[in-house]
Hints:
Two copies of one chain form a homodimer.
Chain A: H1 3-19, H2 26-33, H3 36-47, H4 54-66, H5 74-90, E1 94-117, E2 121-122, E3 125-127, E4 139-146, H6 149-155, E5 164-167, H7 174-190, E6 195-199, E7 225-228, H8 230-241, E8 247-269, E9 274-284, H9 294-313, E10 320-327, H10 335-343, E11 351-356, E12 364-370, H11 373-384, E13 393-396, E14 414-419, H12 424-427, H13 440-459, H14 472-492
Parallel strand pairs in A: 4-5, 5-6, 6-7, 9-10, 9-11, 11-14, 12-13
Antiparallel strand pairs in A: 1-2, 1-8, 3-7, 4-8, 8-10, 12-14
Amino acid sequence: MSAIKLVLVFLLWGTISRADDCNLSQAEIEEIQSYQDVVNQIIEATTNGQFKGETFEELAVFVDKFGARLSGTQALEDSIDYLLERMNSTFDIENVHGEDVQVPHWERISEWAEMVEPISAKIPLLALGGSVSTPEDGIEAEVVVVSSAEDIHNNYHDAVDGKIVVINYDYHSYGVSVSHRYDAPVAAANHGAVAVLIRSVTDFSMDSPHTGQTTYEDGVTKIPAAAITVEHANMLQRRQERGENVTIRINIQTQTLADATSRNTVGEIVGSEKPNKVVIVSGHLDSWDVGVGALDDGGGAFISWYALAVLKSLGLRARRTVRSVLWTAEENGMAGVKAYDELHKDDLGDFIFVMESDDGTFTPLGLRFIANTKGTCILTEILKLLEPINATQAVRSTSGVGSDITIWKDVLPTGSLYNQNDNYFWYHHTKADTMEALDPDALDRATALWASVAYIVADLNEDFPRALTDSGFYASANVFYVVFLSLFGVWFY
Amino acid sequence: MSAIKLVLVFLLWGTISRADDCNLSQAEIEEIQSYQDVVNQIIEATTNGQFKGETFEELAVFVDKFGARLSGTQALEDSIDYLLERMNSTFDIENVHGEDVQVPHWERISEWAEMVEPISAKIPLLALGGSVSTPEDGIEAEVVVVSSAEDIHNNYHDAVDGKIVVINYDYHSYGVSVSHRYDAPVAAANHGAVAVLIRSVTDFSMDSPHTGQTTYEDGVTKIPAAAITVEHANMLQRRQERGENVTIRINIQTQTLADATSRNTVGEIVGSEKPNKVVIVSGHLDSWDVGVGALDDGGGAFISWYALAVLKSLGLRARRTVRSVLWTAEENGMAGVKAYDELHKDDLGDFIFVMESDDGTFTPLGLRFIANTKGTCILTEILKLLEPINATQAVRSTSGVGSDITIWKDVLPTGSLYNQNDNYFWYHHTKADTMEALDPDALDRATALWASVAYIVADLNEDFPRALTDSGFYASANVFYVVFLSLFGVWFY
């Protein structure tokens, strides 16, 4: 590489770096910086003062009282009643109410599995959400282990008729691997399988099956579907590779009842100047029926309403409304947010920024969000104020963030809690989803971040940029850099 | 601090450092260094050549075939028969035989627990080894949560009569915390408790109860004893702290049958010059009745016999005998090693060095051992040869190493596999003790280390130093340094 080319690379590097720089006015920057005292007050109250440990404690009382909260169950509705009362009476949050939603009501009744050949051994399993039952006496059949739906189609299409298919894939990310959970029953049934067992969707297992929603297709036989542990999937695979014939008996009993009425749980701190403009913080209150839904999504739901409790107690009323929405029925199809979207379709224009935490409430690092460049600059500047809790990272995303709120990912700015959630999927949808998956200090910090960001975005002079793509200066600049980069590349090689 | 004192500190530091230095002759060092080629050959064969992955594969076949191997069960005896045949016929290990031992035969039949007040919830549990049964209909009683046996005695002696005691202690190390498992039933029964549930002995839980042996005392009522998960112990504690009355129903059915005949499993590569002198590598073949005993202690047992398979295949016959002993019935009282000690009491003088791996077979780092200074120097020099697999750490211990072999900790030199076992107690005595707790590469390296150390110690010109304490030069030197250090300290301050 010639010296002049090297110099040009450095110049180019500098130019590209600057392309992402922010162009906020000094006044805008100073306006955001003026919230440092407010943020410090929130952080002090949550991590050291009267609210220290309280998000965890509130959640512990809640999950101890109600346990798991599957959509359609009385436990979920009782838990909503309790929380409406608590938000309203104890914490004086405003406009506390439920908004009715029709939700699915599927229930696990019983399930067991055992290997009967070549040796007898119990096989832990969890029926997948929506799974049909086996016949009352169960199913006994030989096992065929495959690596994916495509593997059935390509290599085992004649081999699975009348068999129990085990799908033992190589785990990549949750986002990639979860497709096996959805695709398995249709793919297996299409080739005559009588049941399907998937390897649980996780990168770490302590003998833990993980449930989660699955799907069927009209016109394809609905076969029972369950998750077995990573350990057992690998064990069955080893046996197949050794040429052993393995027979399994499974018995899964479930029922799908009539849709039930549930509620999205809503509370606000009404804005002082523009009450119709709304910043939303959210999580979902329903959970799967194993464990107690402390991690998924008790943590996300509780930082969302508790952020309002903190703001209210500190007398922090923003110019715009800060609203907490605790979605119902996220786990089995997101009926809650869909109903909310429909009910509020005329208000969507007033939703300034919508946040959801449904990826864990471990130690917070900052925010992931979808926003345009100016929005990115504003959030970056706001997050600098979270320096005292080391949660300053602004991660601009192009794919959806959150879970429920991905419904609006192309419509309005959305954000989610960026946190140290490397172990999130260890616990997700398992019996181990309990308070031990959470940490009181991490929850305090998450509440602080949630309250701070929501308050500031709701209080700024100007509305948060609505557009998700850039226009004007930023767009031109971006086009310029792309063209320049391309030309430079052509010349360089 | 004056300059002269500072200089003296450095001089003293240098002197102390040298106090641990080795005084091996150049000839002794060169003798040990001459084994580098042998060690390289072993490492090549196990980590790259014909044995790569085979320790794991052998163990996987074994645990898939026989599952858990509790003392007294047919599964354990079948597994011993299989292994005797495999060691003898497939790998041509010498003098392969079993040595009879009478072992306890306690069995878990069934167990369940549920909270009935204030809400209904299942409580996973595992009866502790040796636990008596509840009445056939179970026990229903209020719960009292305490932090230890002493806590009952000091603070709850009037409060546990007729109650189910839950012992929810602060976990420290396994060595410290396991005492709760042993002490719980007697301490609780002494104050009238009807059953005792301990928090599982672990620093990490994924809804996993951990079993393990407990003890009773003559003259104290034997009450049922089980382990519950960390999650449930904490949940019960939270409820007590809130003043909730908690009632639990438990039903534990176990049986203690007549002692059974089991075997220690023995194989050798007979020494070429001093066949009566023996280096032992060992692990235990029995396991608890949950999981498949892959980690505890399948790994330790399998590196122990497979080290011999490797040596035999490579034609590496040492001057002394290398013997593999796979203990039986370690888990519930170490009947295997006790019988071995009794049977071989006249041979103990010929046991040169005894090694056991029962703390995990994760990535090996070196050896922990009890030896005198010269023995320490020899092992340190040998372990330098393991540099290609980065397992060179020589850790001199004063407390016992291994598990079974602690019976000889004051009698002869003993060593154990020093390995990256931070997560060992995550899996220990749980259903998650499966092949997924192990790693093929780590097992290969452990086999290499085991084979290398055993071979060299068995082959050196001189017998490994028998004495566990120093005499002559080393002892005088140590006395000198202690006196010097004390005088220096007095002068310095």
